[in-house]
Amino acid sequence: MTLIFAHRGSSKSEPENTMPAFKQALKDGADGIELDVQLTKDGQVVVIHDEKVDRTTNGKGYVKDYSLYDLQKLHVHNQTLHKVAIPTLIEVFEWLNGNDLIVNIELKNGVIPYESLEEKVIQLIRLYRCEQRVILSSFNHYSIVHCFRLAPDIETAPIYKSGIYMPWVYAQSIGAKGLHPHHLAAPDAMIQESLKNGIAVRPWTVNKERSIKRLLKAGCSSIITDYPKKAVELRNKINRNS
């Protein structure tokens, strides 16, 4: 069965990469969540997509220039009067203790080469014993290889936007057990050949109904979507009719 991953949580109904978005994803029936991590000035692993806080909060500047204390004083933009803070990866793991969700952690180290980001994330995965529930991904494939060398028991997956020739061969060459292509770079034949070779395929960010249906019918391992509730409903409908 194709799993449904909530992209930055249920990010079209709650603020992206926040605890409310992750909790909503669970309510929506998602099988997993996708989130992004970076490091604060004092070396803490926090969950946020952009290198700057400007788009998603009432603050300005780079994540790397904030201490955790100052970063969590910022307000994430949302539709209520309640304060929503940028979460730490520790907060997410604490919450994951109470459910069975899988978590895809994207290492945001393509623009800013955060020193020891991989080591810190893996240390937390070990601490919370989530090795079998985590997938480490990144556009920075050097980082993915580094993760594999540090922790070969934790699944890794390179993210990419354009087509790669025989990507399952590439995945095998870097020790990755999965591929995370843009959905337009994931034709049915590639999905099927990758799966035959033991490589999971999890396209992103799959929001349109026709794209969700195509990838569900193609049997990809997972889809990463901003609309997990809609994707779960479509999956259930297809399963009922098959």
TrEMBL record:
Residues 2-235 form the GP-PDE domain. InterPro entries: GP_PDE_dom, PLC-like_Pdiesterase_TIM-brl. CDD domains: GDPD_TtGDE_like. Gene3D superfamilies: Phosphatidylinositol (PI) phosphodiesterase (3.20.20.190). One of its GO terms (biological process) is lipid metabolic process. GO terms for molecular function: phosphoric diester hydrolase activity. The lineage of its organism: Bacteria, Bacillati, Bacillota, Bacilli, Bacillales. It comes from Bacillus oleivorans. PANTHER family: GLYCEROPHOSPHODIESTER PHOSPHODIESTERASE, CYTOPLASMIC (PTHR46211:SF1), GLYCEROPHOSPHORYL DIESTER PHOSPHODIESTERASE (PTHR46211). PROSITE patterns: GP_PDE. This is Glycerophosphoryl diester phosphodiesterase. It comes from the Bacteria.
